[in-house]
Specification:
Number of strands: 10
Shape: globular
Largest sheet: 6 strands, mixed
Number of helices: 8
Strand order of the largest sheet: 6-7-8-3-9-10
Strand content: 15-25%
Distance between the termini: 20 Å
Oligomer: single chain
Helix content: 25-40%
Order of helices and strands: EEEHEEEHHHEHEHEEHH
Length: about 280
């Protein structure tokens, strides 16, 4: 993680007008995401986690505060930032390969290069044999794989995922989590995933960002100092999961400040587990 400010969010506030009244969705949120890091965000429904994701991706630009990606202000969507939604949002009249190719629509690459990238990413997500299939011929997990391929096909250096497995059954969700982790390990792309599933957040993330109820604030950040691949049933993972749940269930929603960064060294795990629950400063 050579660039600690790969994605920088500073004092971001987002308000909406609802029936003539201002509704605060986010209040002074600050967060740094390092290059190649996998950050997960959890919180109660309506806490603003999906709003934060859309702002960081540039899909929504109405906010106070500053958001920068790779040192440049985020002023709108960019091919450098991919997005995967809870629903795959595939066009039913297009084949899988053409749906994935939509991720390259604004690219200046040649037709042959686009074709190569689509084939490569269908292979990456295990859909090489379904290029000519239509969305109605896919299972839920396969459709979500297509959505991930579309998010990755233009080689963004940050991929945002908004509850990508929320609509899947438990078995398919588990399999997709493992596949996403393998993709991250191979591609080393920065990933930021929003989820309501604490187990998913701890299993996948280098850090788990915990948001308080509306107005959304970062109230805690828990590092997951475990080597990959991780064991879902390990006692270490269970302890971190309990820590996240305790933070979520805490009545006090005031954020705490720290400059804690993720520790990848297994030898540092025991010391890290003794630290208090944390959140970012500035």
């Amino acid at each position: 993680m050579s660039n600690p400010a790969h994605l920088r969010i500073r004092e971001v506030t987002r308000e909406f007008n609802v029936n003539g009244e201002k509704l605060s969705a986010l209040d002074a949120v600050s967060l740094d995401v390092a290059e190649g890091e996998f950050v997960t965000i959890v919180g109660a429904s309506g806490c603003g986690k999906s709003t934060l994701l859309r702002l960081a991706a540039g899909l929504d630009t109405t906010h106070a505060g500053r958001i920068a990606h790779d040192g440049r202000p985020v002023t709108g969507p960019s091919l450098d930032r991919g997005m995967v939604f809870q629903e795959p949002r595939l066009f039913p009249w297009l084949t899988v390969e053409r749906n994935v190719a939509l991720g390259l629509e604004n690219s200046e690459l040649s037709k042959s290069e686009k074709k190569r990238l689509v084939e490569e990413h269908l292979e990456l997500v295990g859909l090489a044999g379904f290029a000519k299939a239509y969305p109605h011929q896919l299972s839920g997990g396969m459709a979500q794989r297509a959505g991930i391929a579309r998010g990755l096909v233009n080689r963004p250096n940050v991929l945002f995922l908004d509850e990508p497995f929320g609509a899947l059954d438990a078995i398919t969700k588990t399999r997709m989590q493992d596949e996403l982790q393998e993709i991250w390990a191979r591609e080393r792309i920065t990933m930021v995933l929003v989820t309501h599933d604490v187990e998913e957040a701890v299993y996948l993330g280098d850090r788990v960002v915990i948001m308080s109820p509306r107005p959304g604030r970062i109230r805690d950040i828990v590092p997951v100092n475990l080597r990959r691949p991780r064991e879902r049933t390990s006692a270490a993972l269970a302890r971190i999961r309990t820590r996240v749940l305790e933070s979520l269930n805490s009545i006090d929603s005031r954020p705490v400040a720290t400059d804690e960064r993720p520790v990848r060294d297994e030898g540092s795990r025991r010391a890290a587990s003794l630290r208090p629950a944390v959140a970012l400063a500035n």
